[in-house]
Amino acid sequence: MTQGTDSPSPPLPGSATAARGGVPGATAAARGLRVAVVGATGAVGAEFIALLAHRRMPLGGLRLLASPRSAGRRIDVPGIGACTVEALSDQSLAGADVVFLCAGSEISKACAPAAIRAGAWVIDNSSAFRADPDALLILPEVNGEALDAAAAAGDGPRIVAVPNCSTIIALLAVSPLRALARIRRMVVSTYQAVSGAGAAAMAELEQQARDWASGQPLHSPIFG
Ligand SMILES: NC(=O)c1ccc[n+]([C@@H]2O[C@H](COP(=O)([O-])OP(=O)(O)OC[C@H]3O[C@@H](n4cnc5c(N)ncnc54)[C@H](OP(=O)(O)O)[C@@H]3O)[C@@H](O)[C@H]2O)c1
Q1: How far is the CA of 104 from the centre of ligand 1 (A)?
Q2: 39: left (phi over 0), alpha (psi -120 to 50) or beta
Q3: Distance between CA atoms of 49 and 53, rounded to whole angstroms?
């Protein structure tokens, strides 16, 4: 696991979770969850890293993974320190209790089954498993109890998918209304933010704003 500069990187043995095939339970809670973030240099990965710190998640280790392009890059994780990004490999997820997949559908499809076999619960942020009947499609404010039930069943780690971002936002508003009355019809318009296209797109918008403000020509490698 990658740790802050003041901490040596301990080895990442097979977790107790994997050994008993259950959820990250008492053992993991005692030593802290071992978390891997795949896509740590991206827009979604950055949010997860910020949330882990913001919520003071008790961590037994944190591994930041991305493409080989980002290997060696340092990311400052509040409360932990500077962590080194590693290139994703077949061995990257061994020993993790929870894996956040934030690197797109193809990487999710490639990584999730191996992560499950290695004993980790998978939180997938792509569309890869949304329609998979074996995955849990969870929006905590709406059906978080389904995740609790799956954990309590003790059948081993599962892939947890999340709805599309505009669906999440719509359901947060609609679900309480649905509890009160039948919803017959919804008229929905979505306006996707630049951030939905990822970190590189946000950087492009920021650069274009700077160039526009200083009278420079605008470049659009992402949206051009
Ligand atoms: N942006 C949003 O608002 C949003 C919201 C919900 C869900 N999603 C979904 O979340 C996923 C990530 O989106 P994003 O916006 O965070 O994209 P992004 O900013 O472009 O980040 C992509 C991440 O994937 C990594 N990656 C790319 N190729 C890889 C490889 N071969 N092996 C390992 N890592 C690789 C990138 O690493 P490098 O930096 O090294 O290239 C980067 O960390 C997508 O499935 C997207 O649909 C996005």
Answers
A1: 5
A2: left
A3: 6
Say how far apart CA 162 and CA 141 lie, in whole Å. 12
pTM of the model: 0.88
Q: What is the CATH number of domain 16-166?
A: 3.40.50.720
Pocket around ligand 1 at a 6 A CB cut-off: 39-45, 66-67, 69-70, 88, 102-105, 107, 125-126, 165, 195-196, 198-200
pLDDT digits (tens, 9 = 90+) for 16-70: 333 333 456 667 777 899 999 999 999 999 999 999 999 998 999 999 999 999 9
Concatenate the DSSP letters of all residues of 114-180 into one string: HHHHTT-EEEE-SSTTTT-TTSEE--HHHHHHHHHHHHHHT----EEE---HHHHHHHHHHHHHHHH
Domain boundaries, the chain: 16-166
Inform me whether the pLDDT recorded for 100 exceeds 90.
Answer: yes
H helix intervals, the chain:
16-20, 26-31, 43-54, 105-117, 140-153, 165-180, 199-213
Ligand 1 centre and the CA of 39: distance in Å?
Answer: 5
Looking at residue 17, its pLDDT comes to 36
**Beta-sheet pairing, 136-137 with 159-161:** parallel
